[in-house]
């Protein structure tokens, strides 16, 4: 077993590296665009074969959600074209591909957890990520597509670290309270990916599966921010506001709590988002 992770300097790739057993680091390769050309199918396929890669975790993506509305071509190039090239290279080299997608593929009103077939993106970012999933499917590669939500950790740039910094500085913040979803620890997702790769039968998920992954439960961005403040004893304040009061260029899912029945069926021992936050905060 030998695993290549794209987006090698990003949050999830860094969490996978941290969670990987130190005694088995030789089995893990993190690569960014400066290391490999993920658009060149021929050279990437040759690299995968010559280095005996068995799994590729594709975390590389264009994730500037609002900027994507102004840069749709670039967002599509990175999220769709690059993913298509990676999938085709993996298919050619018989490498299993794990592709990371997002809750932004869900849109419209909702009150019940989102199932895979509920995809209806309302932003450029969400549309390109759904099309990236289609590119994987069309390639014929053996794969696991994972849709995840509100990913955060103590690494990189994310909502948790931003709130921790601003509230730690004593700022008075207003955070939207009408968008519902589930904060997900990138460490939780990293562990799941690692255990999936190391399991004998891939948790019984098969060779062509799309699933949701998040921690358990749900909240709003305001609820998440308030929990961060209280968990870390920060001096700043948090007040709720509506999405209309805090306009953003890209439309966010108003309800992206995800159905976790496939995840539950694997026997994975999930935790609540509050428990995961406690771990990240070191409490």
UniProtKB/TrEMBL annotation:
<keyword id="KW-0560">Oxidoreductase</keyword>
<dbReference type="InterPro" id="IPR036291">
    <property type="entry name" value="NAD(P)-bd_dom_sf"/>
</dbReference>
<dbReference type="InterPro" id="IPR005913">
    <property type="entry name" value="dTDP_dehydrorham_reduct"/>
</dbReference>
<dbReference type="GO" id="GO:0008831">
    <property type="term" value="F:dTDP-4-dehydrorhamnose reductase activity"/>
</dbReference>
<comment type="function">
    <text>Catalyzes the reduction of dTDP-6-deoxy-L-lyxo-4-hexulose to yield dTDP-L-rhamnose.</text>
</comment>
<protein>
    <recommendedName>
        <fullName>dTDP-4-dehydrorhamnose reductase</fullName>
        <ecNumber>1.1.1.133</ecNumber>
    </recommendedName>
</protein>
<dbReference type="GO" id="GO:0019305">
    <property type="term" value="P:dTDP-rhamnose biosynthetic process"/>
</dbReference>
<dbReference type="InterPro" id="IPR029903">
    <property type="entry name" value="RmlD-like-bd"/>
</dbReference>
<comment type="similarity">
    <text>Belongs to the dTDP-4-dehydrorhamnose reductase family.</text>
</comment>
<dbReference type="Pfam" id="PF04321">
    <property type="entry name" value="RmlD_sub_bind"/>
</dbReference>
<feature type="domain" description="RmlD-like substrate binding">
    <location>
        <begin position="1"/>
        <end position="280"/>
    </location>
</feature>
<keyword id="KW-0521">NADP</keyword>
<comment type="pathway">
    <text>Carbohydrate biosynthesis; dTDP-L-rhamnose biosynthesis.</text>
</comment>
């Amino acid at each position: 077993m030998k695993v290549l992770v794209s987006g090698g300097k990003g949050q999830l790739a860094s969490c996978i590296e941290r969670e990987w057993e130190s005694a088995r680091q030789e089995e893990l390769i993190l690569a960014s665009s400066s290391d490999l050309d993920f658009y060149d199918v021929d050279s990437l396929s040759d690299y995968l074969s010559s280095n005996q890669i068995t799994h590729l975790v594709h975390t590389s993506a264009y994730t500037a959600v609002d900027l994507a509305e102004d840069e749709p071509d670039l967002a599509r190039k990175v999220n769709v074209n690059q993913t298509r090239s990676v999938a085709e290279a993996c298919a050619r080299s018989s490498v299993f591909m794990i592709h990371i997608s997002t809750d932004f593929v869900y849109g419209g009103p909702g009150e019940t957890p989102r199932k895979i077939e509920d995809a209806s993106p309302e932003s450029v970012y969400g549309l390109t990520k759904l099309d990236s999933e289609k590119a994987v499917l069309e390639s014929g590669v053996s794969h696991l597509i994972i849709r995840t939500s509100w990913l955060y950790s103590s690494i990189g740039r994310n909502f948790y670290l931003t709130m921790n910094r601003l509230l730690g500085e004593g700022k008075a913040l207003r955070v939207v309270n009408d968008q519902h979803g589930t904060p997900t620890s990138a460490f939780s997702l990293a562990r799941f990916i690692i255990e999936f790769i190391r399991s004998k039968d891939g948790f019984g998920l098969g060779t062509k599966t799309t699933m949701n992954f998040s921690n358990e439960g749900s909240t709003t961005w305001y609820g998440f921010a308030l929990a961060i403040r209280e968990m870390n004893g920060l001096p700043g304040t948090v007040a709720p506001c509506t999405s209309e009061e805090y306009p953003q260029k890209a439309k966010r899912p108003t309800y992206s709590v995800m159905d976790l029945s496939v995840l539950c069926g694997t026997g994975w021992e999930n935790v609540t988002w509050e428990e995961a936050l406690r771990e990240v905060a070191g409490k």
